[in-house]
Amino acid sequence: ATLTGISTWERDALLRQWLVSTRLTAISTLQSLSRLVESMQNMVVMDEIKTKVDDAIQELTSIQSALSSSIDHFTACKHATRASVLAESAFFDPSMVSLLYFPDQHKYAIYLPFFLPAAMPLLTALKRVIKDRKSRKAANKDSKT
C-alpha cells in the first residue's frame, strides 16, 4: 500500500472508470447539441461554438491517442475533462440557450401586430380589383353576345 492507502491498481481502476464516464458525458453532450441544431432549422451557430465543438472532438481523439501510444490514463483523463468542459460550454452557451426559447410561433406573435394593419388595406384593395375585373369580364362577355 502507498501513503494514501490506495494501491496503484485501485488508482488505475478509478481513473479508467472516471475516464469512461467523462468521455461518455462529452460524447452525449455533443450528440445532444447536434440533435438540437438539426431540430431547429433557423438556428444560427456562432463560430465560437463551432470552435468549441471542434476542440472537444479533437480532445476526444487525443484520448484515443494517449491510450494507444502508451497506457497513460492520467493524460487521457485530462483530455476527457477538457472534452467534457468544451462540449458543455458549447451546449450551454448563452447564444444557444437564448435561441431555444424563441421559436417561430413567437416571431409570428411579435411581428403580426406590426404587419397586419398595413396588410389589411392592401388585401381589401386587391379584393376590390379582382371583383372589378370579374365584373368587367362579365360585362364584356354580355356585350359581345
Characterization of the model:
By secondary structure, this protein is an all-alpha fold. 84% of the residues lie in helices and 0% in strands. The protein is built from five helices and no strands. Helix 2 (47-69) runs antiparallel to helix 3. 15% of the residues are buried. The model has no long low-confidence stretch (mean pLDDT 86).
Q: What is the number of beta strands?
A: 0
Helix/strand order, N-terminal first: HHHHH
Largest sheet: none
Euclidean distance between termini CA atoms: 113 Å
Shape: rod-shaped
Give helix % range.
over 70%
Overall average pLDDT: 86
Regions with little confidence, pLDDT below 50 for 5+ residues: none
- Can you count the helices? 5
Structural class: mainly alpha
| Strand proportion | under 5%
Radius of gyration, in angstroms, nearest whole number:
31 Å
SSE diagram, text form:
Elements lengths: L7 H32 L7 H23 L3 H19 L2 H7 L3 H41 L1
Would you kindly provide a brief summary of this structure?
The chain is mainly alpha-helical and 145 residues long. Helix content is 84%, strand content 0%.
What are its keywords?
single chain; mainly alpha; 145 residues; 5 helices
